[in-house]
Design goal:
With about 110 residues, the chain is α+β, with helices and mostly antiparallel strands. It contains four helices and three strands. Helix 2 crosses helix 3 (about 70-80). The longest helix is centred in the middle third of the chain and has 12 residues, at about 70-80. It starts with a helix and ends with a helix.
Length: about 110
């Protein structure tokens, strides 16, 4: 078996599904449906053949979000549970700023926004 066949295939969808386990403690909606995840990038690691790195860019609903550290930690933890992920790097970005337009219809329904 060659090196590529031994690694599980990691997709952005796999990572986003895992990230749905991270729930905003104030809004009670997951961070994917809230639109807080801006980028999920799966990267090869030159010194590792047993898996890949997931790089995530995410934002907060406000720059002073008190749940920020909890959300970042949850994102790192849950992305790391995807088979084949050996490292997770989460970067918080504030540009572009988050707006409610980024939410999915499911999130809008949960929050009673029409």
């Amino acid at each position: 078996m060659n090196e590529m066949e031994s690694k599980p295939v990691i997709t952005e969808d796999h990572v986003r599904e895992a990230l749905k386990q991270v729930i905003d403690p104030e809004l009670h909606v997951n961070i994917v449906d809230l639109g807080l995840i801006y980028l999920v990038d799966i990267r090869d690691l030159p010194d590792r053949t047993d898996g890949q790195q997931v790089y995530i860019e995410m934002t907060m609903t406000s720059p002073m979000c008190p749940a920020g550290p909890q959300l970042v930690g949850g994102a790192k933890h849950h992305a790391g549970t995807v088979p084949g992920v050996v490292d997770v790097d989460v970067k918080v970005v504030m540009d572009p700023p988050w707006t409610p337009d980024r939410m999915t219809e499911d999130a809008r329904d949960q929050l009673g926004m029409f």
